[in-house]
Amino acid sequence: MGHTIREKQKLLNRVRRIKGQVEAIERSLESERGCADVLQQITSCRGAMNGLLAVVLEDHIRNHLVDATTEDEHHGSATEQLIDVVHSYFK
């Protein structure tokens, strides 16, 4: 995964923020905060994880999958089509 090395610091920063979010969830549960607060923290953490997954997956697609040599005039290359599908999944 050479492409992750180029973006290593950015990826590590994202992971550290997610770690902080998970620790905040743990603290909220330990202090018996309300369900709504805990649910909000969980959804925020999930969004951050999805964002990290999307970045790594997009880099993987761009760097390791063979791009189709022809482009569909309406949809673009196979790689771009796949990236669009992945992005729509995470919305």
From TrEMBL:
InterPro entries: Metal_Tscrpt_repr, Metal_Tscrpt_repr_sf
Gene3D superfamilies reported for this sequence: Metal-sensitive repressor, helix protomer
Keyword annotations of the record: DNA-binding
Domain of life, source organism: Bacteria
One annotated GO molecular function: DNA binding
BP-aspect Gene Ontology terms: negative regulation of DNA-templated transcription
Similarity annotation: Belongs to the FrmR/RcnR family.
Name assigned to this protein: DNA-binding transcriptional regulator, FrmR family
Source organism of the structure: Paraburkholderia fungorum
Phylogenetic classification of the source organism: Bacteria, Pseudomonadati, Pseudomonadota, Betaproteobacteria, Burkholderiales
